[in-house]
Structure prediction request, 84 residues.
Amino acid sequence: MYNSAKRTLWRHFWVQTVVAAISGSLSLITLLWPDWIEAVSGWDPDQYDGAVEWAIVATMLLVTIVALATGARSRRQLRAAEGV
Prediction:
């Protein structure tokens, strides 16, 4: 495999890993502190109903799962390219 292709796969792997870490962290923060959006931004999208917070948790968990899965695929492609 060409060096530029390996470099691209490594970049994809690290971007996907960082996205998974950030989205997983935001999901955990939202589970532990549901009102962080209101505290940080002053914006109350659901008037303390909690629906937006649960939507954020669900979305961030989905993003985390997808990013981890695509990152694992990139890592497998890199291992195959390196012959490991």
Remarks:
- Residues 16 and 67 are 5 Å apart (CA to CA).
